[in-house]
């Protein structure tokens, strides 16, 4: 694979305290922004292709269907960076959520964390 996309499992940090190499924070706002940006750009390419096909003389419905079919592989090639950013944000959010869940489970079991054991 010579693409810039992370391979499965590559974007996931195994150490929750390790700094992110991609700049992804996984905060809900950043994840939402990445999703809106990626979906918006994909819709924009469908709209542009539809406009071009209608200008060429195709009926609107046919132009929309052709644009949808053409936009899928085109967006895979053109928007590789956006998709990688979205994947990194989702991976960071999943990692943070997993860490919070494990901390909560440990707390419910009565286990103390490393910072809670200072008074012993």
From TrEMBL:
Keywords: Membrane, Transmembrane, Transmembrane helix. It comes from the Bacteria. Residues 1-27 are annotated as: Disordered. InterPro entries: DUF4229. The chain crosses the membrane at residues 31-54, 60-79. The keyword Membrane applies. Residues 1-13 have a biased composition (Basic and acidic residues). This is Uncharacterized protein DUF4229.
């Amino acid at each position: 694979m010579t693409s810039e996309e992370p391979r499965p499992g590559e974007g996931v940090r195994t150490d929750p305290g390790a700094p992110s190499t991609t700049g992804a924070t996984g905060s809900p706002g950043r994840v939402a922004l990445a999703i809106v940006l990626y979906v918006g750009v994909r819709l924009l390419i469908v709209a542009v292709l539809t406009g071009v096909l209608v200008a060429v003389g195709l009926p609107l419905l046919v132009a929309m269907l052709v644009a949808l079919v053409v936009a899928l592989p085109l967006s895979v090639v053109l928007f590789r960076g956006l998709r990688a950013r979205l994947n990194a944000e989702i991976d960071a959010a999943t990692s943070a959520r997993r860490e919070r869940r494990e901390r909560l489970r440990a707390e419910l079991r009565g286990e103390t964390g490393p910072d809670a054991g200072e008074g012993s």
